[in-house]
């Protein structure tokens, strides 16, 4: 069975939401976000681009999660 892009994205968001419900998984995702942001900003600085800043929603879960 082949999933459409929308179905794949919905399944991915569902897995992320389930994973974020545990404290360990949430802390792990925060560390991954920080590492990826740092790596992207290092590359952008190397090629002469400005740094990126992720929206706060990337760091903190939405209320009620």
Automatic annotation (TrEMBL):
It comes from the Bacteria. This is Mobile element protein. It comes from Sphingobium fuliginis (strain ATCC 27551).
